[in-house]
Specification:
The structure holds two protein chains of two kinds. By secondary structure, chain A is α+β, with helices and mostly antiparallel strands. Helices cover 51% and strands 18% of the residues of chain A. The radius of gyration of chain A is 23 Å and the shape is rod-shaped. Chain B is of the alpha/beta class. Chain B has four domains: 112 residues, Nucleic acid-binding proteins (OB fold (Dihydrolipoamide Acetyltransferase, E2P)), CATH 2.40.50; 139 residues, Rossmann fold, CATH 3.40.50.2300; 65 residues; 44 residues, no CATH class. Chain B is 42% helix and 23% strand. The N and C termini of chain B lie far apart (130 Å). The chains are: A alpha+beta, B alpha/beta. The interface between A and B is large, with 45 and 50 residues. β1 of chain A pairs parallel with β9 of chain B, so a sheet runs across the interface.
């Protein structure tokens, strides 16, 4: 589930919990679902390390290699 | 020349030649029309009083702040003009000075008229803008919204220069896990438009970018001109993912800015548009977690009170068995709540808070609270060694909760 979708669902759950008339069991079930969504969102925020790459096309062939700002070798276009 | 006037009585012999008007005009004409500087002239000025006669001839004036010259451009010379002259335009006129005897004036006979510098550029810009607008390339309806959290951001810009540096810096600050892929391009000069088009094509056909930033750092009108090129506009339009233009100019809009799905004034601003700040998102998660915990606490608390009051009412004395069951259920629910709260805590613990806590424990105040004391003299200078105590009689001891005066045993 994307961050945006998970977050929207989370907001919906808070709304329900705050305003809804429901049994304690149901509210706890919603709460647990909320917890799961928070953990999922946190997981999405914590993804991998940053990657900075450069893409070049030579004779229909695409190559991708690592790029760093000091890479002056890329200046010859 | 008819006769001469003699002024004999004025202390000298003064003879004035008296000319007919037409003779005078002919002299002036001779001077003006043979003066080498006035042949093969190029004059720059602002058009005014422009009239295009039905005969085909154009009559107008060229002026600057201080002066004006009347001009004529005959039909034979002006039919090939590739623009429509209008009052207010800045132009360069080639031609020569002639004297129009009948009216006794001089004129610039214009053989060629060109738009002066920026005027031509500006006109070309307006025409292209209008053309593309009519085709629908700028339509608001077709502008695509940017993805909320892209996994991969494509960038088309120069591999050297401030733009890519700023974009990388802002993107990674806001979203540490982001993937950035640069398709390098020339961003000024004759080769720039094609280079930008090729780079856009490469990254679009590769297909893994969720959004593309195309742009460059600030510069003069000429330096930004590649982003007014028709080819660049069409390439941006045909990209299969949303494109943000970032042409490093606060106020002026290039054609690329009009076609793009979003426009940013600088590369850094584009990076901010394209990715949400993960710290803000974390904070929102924490706020939500807190809210649902509070709600749950309240609900369980009120249920507990309810069960308590039920078990107290004589008239409705429930069998102990049933009361016990209710308490037990509450315990279970309470356990689930507690577990959820623990999980929330680990999910919303920010890495920085842990580091901050460690830093805090290393501060001097924290050291004092562990039982250490700091000694200093009247002036506040710290006494760290016994050797420093030799000239000291009275001194201060600083504890975690205040200080006290002390005297040395001699």
């Amino acid at each position: 589930m994307s961050f945006e979708d998970a977050y929207t669902k989370l907001e919906g759950i808070v709304e329900l919990l705050e305003t809804g008339e429901m049994t304690l069991e149901r509210s706890l079930a919603l709460f647990e679902e909320g917890v799961a969504l928070v953990r999922h969102c946190r997981c999405l925020l914590d993804t991998a390390e940053k990657r900075v790459e450069m893409i070049l096309k030579e004779d229909e062939q695409i190559t991708i290699k690592d790029f760093s700002v000091e890479d002056k070798g890329a200046a010859s276009l | 020349m008819r006769w001469a006037l003699h002024f004999g009585d004025c202390g000298g012999d003064l003879t004035l030649q008296i000319y007919q008007v037409s003779e005078l005009t002919r002299i002036i004409k001779g001077i003006l029309e043979e003066e080498p500087r006035l042949l093969g002239l190029a004059v720059e000025g602002e058009l005014s009083n422009f009239k295009h006669h039905s005969s085909g001839h154009m009559y107008f004036s060229l002026k600057d702040q201080k002066s004006v010259v009347n001009c004529v451009m005959f039909a034979r010379q002006n039919y090939g003009l590739d623009f429509t002259p209008q009052d207010g335009m800045h132009v360069v006129c080639l031609g020569q000075i002639g004297v129009y005897e009948k009216r006794g004036g001089y004129q610039l006979y214009v053989s060629q008229m060109l738009e002066a510098g920026e005027g031509a550029l500006q006109r070309a810009f307006e025409e292209l803008k209008e053309k593309l607008r009519k085709e629908g390339l700028f339509d608001a309806a077709r502008k695509r919204s940017l993805p909320f959290m892209p996994q991969c951001v494509g960038v088309v810009t120069s591999p050297t220069g401030a733009a890519i540096r700023d974009i990388i810096s802002v993107l990674t600050r806001r979203h540490p896990g982001i993937r950035i892929v640069l398709a390098p391009a020339l961003v000024q000069g004759d080769g720039a438009p094609q280079s930008i088009v090729d780079a856009l094509g490469t990254i679009d056909s590769w297909g893994a970018a969720d959004v593309i930033i195309v742009g460059r750092g600030g510069g003069s009108l000429e330096e930004l001109w590649a982003f007014n090129d028709e080819r660049v506009a069409r390439a941006i339009y045909s990209c299969s993912v949303p494109v943000v233009s970032a042409v490093g100019h606060e106020t002026d809009f290039t054609i690329a800015d009009f076609v793009a799905d979003q426009r940013a004034p600088t590369p850094s601003a584009a990076a901010e548009l394209v990715v949400p700040d993960h710290r803000q998102l974390m904070q929102r998660l924490k706020d939500i977690s807190l809210r649902i915990q509070v709600i749950m606490d309240q609900r369980i608390q009120s249920r507990l009170e309810h069960v308590n009051s039920l078990s107290k009412r004589r008239a409705l004395q429930l069998p102990q068995d049933q009361v016990n069951q209710r308490y037990q259920r509450l315990d279970e629910l309470g356990r689930r709540l507690e577990m959820g709260q623990r999980q929330l805590k680990t999910a919303t613990d920010h890495r920085l808070e842990k580091v901050a806590a460690r830093l805090n424990s290393l501060s001097p105040l924290a050291t004092l609270s562990r039982g250490y004391a700091i000694c200093h003299d009247q002036t506040g200078a710290i006494i760290a060694k016994v050797a420093q105590m030799s000239d000291v009689d009275e001194f201060w001891i600083q504890f975690s909760d205040g200080k006290t005066k002390a005297r040395k045993f001699s």
